[in-house]
Write a structure and sequence with these properties.
The termini are far apart. A five-stranded antiparallel β-sheet has the order 1-2-3-4-5, covered by helices on one side. The protein has a four-stranded mixed β-sheet with strand order 8-7-6-9, covered by helices on one side. It folds into three domains: 70 residues, no CATH class; 88 residues, Pleckstrin-homology domain (PH domain)/Phosphotyrosine-binding domain (PTB) (PH-domain like), CATH 2.30.29.30; 84 residues, Multidrug-efflux Transporter Regulator, Chain: A, Domain 2, CATH 1.10.1660. It is of the alpha+beta class. The relative contact order is 0.09. The protein contains eight helices and eleven strands. Helix 1 runs antiparallel to helix 2.
Length: 262
């Protein structure tokens, strides 16, 4: 993403964008089907008909997968041609330049700009821009890697015209295995609290915890049970922890002030 005065560029190289999308759509059937070929079809063909028949079977099925991928590539490629390449603000108008074609939206018809930022384990995955018009249609733009920059740009250029600009965050859960859950020390570092306060805060904020023994210790007969915390819940609770600490600080100040007055 780049900003050029009153133009917001979302796709710098449309040719490369289309090539990447087309290649991905062509490869998807192979990625899904190759494990079946390698671990199911090939051993069966080899066992019943021998090596010569096995590799011919694999070649035929791989060709079929490619044949399935070609129409998918064409359909997705045609859809990608409607992807918004850049957005430009002109007096009274918002211009949407697509890879193929241009749309003009009257400034008076725009009601809302929503930037939805997806976050996983505290890391931003980019923001998707949605333009909502008075008539109801929704225009979605490809994700941008800098959601806060998107919010600032739309606010600066469309805010004065009365267009509501909103920033929403959607957390995507990683569902990590328990071996990758966070220790109390890791949680304390992330929350910026003492280690001895982690358990109480986790219980207060309903952060899931588990007690388990690492496999390495169990294999050697060593009891290394420890309490770990779900990373998804930990990251989602960061803002709540800051709020809880502020609330506790205000409460303590209030108690101290009441004590002084007495």
């Amino acid at each position: 993403m780049s900003v050029r005065d009153r133009r917001l560029v979302l796709i710098r190289q449309p040719g490369r964008h289309l090539a990447a999308a087309s290649l991905a759509s062509l490869v998807i059937p192979l990625v899904v089907g190759l494990p079946v070929l390698c671990f199911l079809v090939t051993p069966l063909a080899w066992g019943f008909f021998g090596f010569s028949a096995a590799w011919r079977t694999v070649a035929v099925l791989a060709g079929l997968l490619l044949a399935i991928g070609l129409p998918i590539m064409v359909l997705l490629g045609r859809a990608e041609l409607r992807t918004v390449r850049w957005i430009e603000v002109q007096p009274g108008w918002v211009i949407l330049r697509r890879i193929r074609g241009v749309d003009r939206i009257a400034m008076s018809d725009l009601r809302r700009i929503v930037i939805v930022e997806r976050v996983k384990l505290g890391r931003s995955l980019g923001g998707e821009v949605t333009l909502e018009t008075a008539a109801g249609p929704v225009v979605r733009c490809p994700p941008g890697p800098e959601p806060r920059a998107l919010v600032a740009w739309f606010t600066a250029h469309l805010g004065p015209a009365g267009v509501d600009v909103r920033h929403e965050t959607v957390a995507e859960r990683a569902h990590l295995p328990i071996e990758s859950w966070y220790s109390a020390a890791q949680v304390a570092g992330l929350w910026q609290v003492p280690v001895d306060e982690v358990a109480a805060l986790a219980g207060r904020l309903r952060v899931r915890t588990e007690t388990y023994s690492p496999r390495v210790g169990a294999m050697h007969g060593v009891n290394q049970e420890r309490t770990v915390f779900d990373p998804d819940d930990v990251h989602e609770a960061v803002a709540a922890v800051a709020g809880a600490r502020t609330e506790d600080a205000v409460l303590e100040d209030h108690k101290l002030w009441s004590h002084i007055q007495e």
